[in-house]
Amino acid sequence: MKLTQLKHWLKSPEQPKPKCIVTSHAGMADYLMEIEFKHQLVPLKDDADGMLTFRNMEQVGELLKPLGIDTVTLRVIDPYDEFSSDNQLSCCHQDMTITL
Asked: What are phi and psi of 8, to 5 degrees?
């Protein structure tokens, strides 16, 4: 989803505010953002179709607070923890709600 599409969505009075997921992957310095759309997560992109990245949560707040979004879900993903010691799938992410 492009940022301009998100801005138009937020201006629509009938639509509920979208769920925003800020993702931190193990080994990456930047955060990525995904928007829940039709029960699927889609990455937030700029108008040139490039992924939006954030150096810290303050940058996330600077983008979303003026748009009326005051909370996001921070998802920390560790793909190295995907399998437990007995080779069974384990939960490799943790979610927490962050107030901007």
From this structure: -65, -40
Nearest Cα residue to 64 out of 36, 100, 35, 40: 100
Q: How far apart are CA 11 and CA 30, in angstroms?
A: 28
Q: How many other C-beta atoms lie within 10 A of the C-beta of residue 32? A: 17
* Mean pLDDT, contiguous 10-residue spans, the chain (100 residues): 92 85 80 91 94 93 94 80 57 78
pLDDT at 87: 60
38 phi/psi in degrees, rounded to 5: 55, 45
Which whole-number Å values give the CA distances from 16 to 39, 63, 76, 88, in the listed order? 13, 18, 25, 37
CA R_g for the chain: 15
Following DSSP, what letter does each residue of 48-98 receive, concatenated? TSPBPEESSHHHHHHHHGGGT--EEEEEEE-GGGSB-TTS-B---EEEEEE
